[in-house]
Write the structure tokens for this entry.
Amino acid sequence: MSAETPAVKPAVPPPVPEGSPLGRQFAAYLCRLGGEDDPAVAWAVRLACLAVAGGQVCLRLADYAGTTILPEDGTDPVELPALAEWQARLGRSRLVGPPGQFAPLILDTGSRLYLARYWNYERKLAERLLDLAESPAAGIDLPRLRADLDRLFAHNREIPDRQKLAAAVAVLRRFCVISGGPGTGKTSTVVRILAALQAQAGDRPLRIALAAPTGKAAARVQEAIRNQKQKLDCPDALRAAIPDTACTLHRLLGARPDSVYFRHHRDNPLPVDVAVVDEASMIDLALMAKLVDALPEHARLILLGDKDQLAAVEAGSVFGDLCASQGYGLDFAAQLREASGVPVASSDMFPPALSNCVALLTHSHRFREDSGIGALARLVNEGRPKPALDLLNKGDHADLAFVRERGKQVQDLAERMAQGYAAYFAAVDAEAEPRETLRAFDRFRVLTAHREGGRGARGVNRQFEERLWAQRRLWPGTRWYAGRPVIVTRNDYDLRLFNGDIGVALFLEGELRVYFEDADGRVRGFAPGRLPEHETVYAMTVHKSQGSEFDEVLLLLPEAESPVLDRPLVYTAITRARHKAEIRGLPAVLEGAIKSSPRPSSGLGERLWRGGQ
Ligand SMILES: Nc1ncnc2c1ncn2[C@@H]1O[C@H](COP(=O)(O)OP(=O)(O)OP(=O)(O)O)[C@@H](O)[C@H]1O
């Protein structure tokens, strides 16, 4: 990418956060209810509601104070007051109260404006996590732990052995967060952690729950755990303690149809001693608060994830905030050395207790040293667009491709997609087993930043289906045809089909049914008319792809930079690829995304790390 390539800028900064009509209506309703006639307050309420609908927990007033914004409905520009004046006007509103007061919105001392419900989630979650973090695990037999870890990690050639260190952290603390990129050994490590925990518990079998935010992620972790269990060097009794099944977090917590409340909560806690949750970066603030609330007093919580991935689709990036570790405290570092034999330095500062609960895995066993995907993922994370584009432009890596495409030139995309899905359509035409066809579909996927627009998932799906019409694979006007892949967009608790589940329509034994694979590996077929809301899914947004992996990924960049297209989105997209990542779009758009600065820490980060209120 040459330095003179102009960056493609969005029309007018700062943009009104993307949000739903519901967010706008809710804001209008609140203002009517509170008899609010100050436009600066009404705009703050509106922006706060839109921020939540757009995945933020709160509105940072400082981002908008003193600016002129263009309302998204095309009405006249609005000048917002300077920060101090805006705060004062909000302070006079009946709709807004300080922390701890009963009001629809809360304005905290960091000039963050919250809907009260989210302020409460954040406060409760921080309190409970800090409680967990401050209470070390009691009664650990250190010599035994050392012997077990030495044996369980004898195979690891990594120096220093960060997996073993992470295991020592997880056994010595009641709360542990393990973050690492793809293939850094999170699952291998957690299996060994569970064996070591069972060894500490002696004859009392531990009740262990394994969960993940989506069915797909639960199925993946279940398969990985089963594989790793077989490789363990430990007595059979310890191996037997490790569960063979994983479920979705909603199932674990006891989701109830049409209710935001779960069956398990503080007064009816989960019957578990240890809860392990994979793909924890996908958990939003509300769900994490509910998970932590449902843990019994004595239980341990182990969260696995990748801090560099996209945050949850719903409001709140809890996992990223949890990983802002400041190193291990002096005493804890000494204890870790004793338990693991791994040379670990202590922090020069006096880090908060939470810092002792974090372990980072850095060595990928999936991407070899010469892997293009691994190298590109590193450069994206480091925010280095120039070397990233050089790497792509050189074309030295068989697992990477960059197709420079002007914004609207997508004519050969459908051709490329037909090639990517050739093995899938061959399986459909051969009337292969549904499980086999579902696997074939997962070999390739087009990922987009946006859902709408010419280069958004819906437009790409439409264009590809037009090509299928031309080939007479389907007829204009028909919604269903053999091979139509769909993604569920609304939970159906009766059918046990959930938002994000992917199925394929197959014509087998004279009947067209849509087949889905459950988290426990069972394949079920449904008549198309019974499905909950769904859409075609040859292309899907990167957000929806979290927790999944494909052999080949094609990331289609939007025409211009956009607030949605940021560093974590590009990282998440390329690391969904096992064997090949292809990026299509304008170099300037990719450069802008890699350059984007990480989102500032939320109020949760401040509460966890700096004792904020
Ligand atoms: N210490 C190690 N030495 C050799 N191979 C390892 C080691 N740790 C993990 N692996 C191998 O690397 C691969 C990925 O490991 P694992 O599934 O545990 O990683 P992960 O971080 O959970 O991956 P992801 O979440 O990206 O699927 C597996 O094939 C595993 O056997």
The first strand starts at residue 58 and ends at 60.
